[in-house]
Design goal:
Elements (H helix, E strand, L loop, with lengths): L10 H16 L1 H20 L5 H22 L2
């Protein structure tokens, strides 16, 4: 039996990580600030008992990978 978990990956963390990664490619200082905020967003989701830490890690990985692929594809 396959169990579907809509909490994996965390969409909030994925979005913040993607924005942070894209900003990092353009402006490293602002990118680091947004990536730190993405980590804080993820931690707040765990503290609110909305996600498990693996959901946050998965969201962060998805956000970073997708933004790198899109940046490469769009030649940003």
């Amino acid at each position: 039996m396959i169990i579907f978990d809509p909490a994996f990956p965390s969409a909030h963390t994925a979005l913040a990580a993607a924005l942070g990664t894209l900003m990092f490619l353009k402006n490293r200082f602002l990118g680091v600030i947004i990536l730190v905020l993405a980590i804080i967003i993820g931690e707040s989701r765990v503290l609110l008992n909305v996600h498990y830490p693996i959901d946050i890690a998965g969201g962060f990985v998805v956000g970073v990978v997708v933004s790198f692929l899109m940046a490469k594809w769009l030649k940003v």
